[in-house]
Task: inverse folding
């Protein structure tokens, strides 16, 4: 993505966005890290949606990972330090510059082409429908205002999970992560800090709802997907406008690991550290304990 100052960003002509005009609106998955966004992306892929050709083990497009990292860094933050990026992406002048740079990279430099496999590039060139496509990255939770400016009709799926369980999962990941990993965060070596970050992400996601076109925003509870996967997947398919056979739906629903619904073993291990967390007003608002 270009690092040019605002004055150097080229202004596109009428024909610049030919690729964009042929694209159907993307599906953008948001939600706090360790909330189940990978699970939802993997289910969508299994049901025929396209999430990129160069995916990580967490079903994240490396291309869009790079864009989100750049956006956060440009706003003087990163995935675990989001206060300033949230402010800057709400600032009209800062946001305009970010949008201009992103569109430059996506459509003028045509970096978006690298997201699609050859078959889909051919379909795109012919003006054929690609079917549901999009990307998953928890960082979308913070950068969504910029993405919605680029794709105003995007469909947004917000995955929500109990904040205490998120905090435990995130803490365990960071505790075991190599400090040399580019995403390593000292902040998240505290359960309380992990929980506060969940609150920041959740509030940011909810603040974005007004940016999304009517009927284009869907909340999914992690716990409900585990309790009733067939029902939840059916709703997900309807939202992204994807049709699959009943047999395929059942097959994908049967891959859901329902044993992950309860987190009692880990909660018992950290009972002192998490003692006050369930009393958060956001936990109460969501009906969690």
Result:
């Amino acid at each position: 993505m270009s690092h040019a100052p605002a004055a150097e960003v080229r202004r596109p002509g009428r024909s610049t966005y030919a690729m964009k005009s042929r694209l159907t609106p993307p599906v953008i998955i948001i939600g706090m890290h360790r909330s189940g966004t990978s699970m939802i992306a993997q289910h969508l892929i299994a049901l025929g949606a396209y999430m990129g050709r160069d995916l990580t083990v967490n079903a994240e497009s490396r291309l869009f990972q790079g864009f989100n990292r750049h956006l956060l860094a440009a706003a003087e933050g990163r995935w675990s330090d989001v206060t300033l990026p949230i402010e800057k992406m709400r600032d009209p002048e800062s946001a305009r510059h970010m949008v201009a740079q992103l569109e430059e990279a996506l459509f003028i430099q045509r970096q978006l082409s690298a997201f699609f496999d050859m078959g889909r590039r051919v379909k795109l060139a012919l003006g054929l429908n690609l079917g549901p496509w999009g990307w998953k990255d928890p960082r979308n939770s913070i950068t969504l205002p910029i993405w919605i400016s680029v794709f105003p009709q995007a469909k947004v799926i917000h995955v929500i999970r109990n904040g205490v369980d998120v905090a435990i999962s995130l803490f365990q990941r960071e505790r075991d992560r190599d400090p040399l990993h580019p995403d390593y965060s000292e902040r998240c070596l505290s359960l309380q800090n992990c929980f506060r970050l969940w609150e920041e992400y959740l509030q940011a996601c909810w603040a974005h709802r007004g940016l999304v076109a009517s009927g284009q925003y869907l909340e999914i509870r992690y716990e409900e997907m585990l309790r009733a996967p067939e029902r939840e997947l059916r709703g997900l398919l309807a939202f992204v406008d994807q049709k699959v056979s009943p047999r395929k739906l059942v097959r994908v629903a049967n891959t859901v690991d329902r044993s992950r619904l309860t987190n009692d073993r880990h909660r018992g291990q950290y009972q002192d550290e998490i003692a006050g967390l369930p009393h958060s007003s956001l936990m109460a608002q969501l009906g969690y304990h």
